[in-house]
Design goal:
This protein is mostly beta strands and 425 residues long. It is built from five helices and 28 strands. The protein has a single domain, classed as Tachylectin-2, Chain A. The strands form five sheets. Strands 2, 3, 5, 6, 7, 8, 9, 10, 11, 12, 13 and 16 form a twelve-stranded mixed beta sheet that branches. Strands 1, 17, 18, 19, 20 and 21 form a six-stranded antiparallel beta sheet that branches. The radius of gyration is 21 Å and the shape is globular.
Length: 425
Amino acid sequence: MFGRDPAAWSLFIAACLGGCGPGPALEPGSEVETQTQALTEGAPLTTHDASCLRLVDQNTWSSAVSNMTAVGPALGLPAILGDLNRAGPVLTASTRPPATGYKGGFRWNDGDMATTDWIPQALTAGVSGSTNVAIVSWHYAPSGTDKGVRLSVADISDMSGSAINYRHVLLVRPTGAGQFTTVNEHGGGLAWFGNYLYMADTSDGLRVFDLTQMRQVDTSTACETQVGKVGSVWCAYGYKYVLPQVSAYTMPSTLTSPCRPKFSFLGKDTRGGTSAVLSGEYCNSGDAQCPYDGTTPGLGGRLYRWPLDASTNRLKVVSGAVVPERAWVMNEPNVQGVAPVMTSTATTSYWLSSTRYNGALFKVSTSASRKAFLSGSSQWAKMPEGMHATGSGTNLWTVTEGVSGVTNPATGGRVVFFVDQAAVD
């Protein structure tokens, strides 16, 4: 938590006394009234008071790297990009899903299209040297042994060929000198800044991975069912490379609902002169209702903007804590991803990816009702998840998790594709 930093504790206590909600500080017994405020689907983003919310840096940056030293030399993205071992066919006019402003995309190889063990979730993108790279997270679905989260690292520099090359990498968490284990999270959100990859930790905040600290591990048959150090080698369920967690930003345990949100998805925002990690809540009308759902359950998901220190690519820490610089209630259900509308310098307009209506893209802002692109009207793909908007204002990328049992990319199978930002603005 805050350790022995009295200033940080004072800041935290003062903030919590200030309340957390869409209006003034809550009085005892007033929570029900606040939570039943009417919300309207498709309404503009509603400003949200997030003054009670804090994240605390677990500050394991050095120790995590030290713990991985024995595993082998640190490898950066260029090493992985030089060893891609899978090919995903580029989509064609007959194999692509419907999407307004469609420009290009690819599907996974046959095994990854059909597997029920792993499900795609989040997407982020960036540049490594001269290579354009997309990174997609997959969560492990079977019950029992949890293999955690894997990433697909894909070279998307040339979309004009017949296939996109990619490789899976397993996320791990160092637990001691030369020891690591899986990262048992949903992997619902990614945001890439510099060498750091941020991932949503649903219940607690954000986990951070260092793309310069990948390690090669053993791929023998004995390693296919094991993780961590096994005898004289290190295993990662058969994967050749691991990416270690280096730190985390977590909510203090004293934060409770409604102040304590879920971290369901992430996004990358570089507008307004201050880069930021975006985080948001998935809410629906059934098993995932949120604190501010009002009279229409599913609409109370909140969107937060966490400021980044441009010199370090870490979140800005003030008096021992990280605070969101902006927050809104989204007034949209089933949100799975977010990306900034890059044609606007204001940080008040976003695209939201939603599984509402089996698939939708919503353009939302603080000043106007939503603009919707629906899969049922052949305007968007089915089951969309994470998104990334290129800083040039050109392309909007997204990944789909796929309709259960469907492997045809044109009718709901898993795909990664991009559209013209202007077409959905």
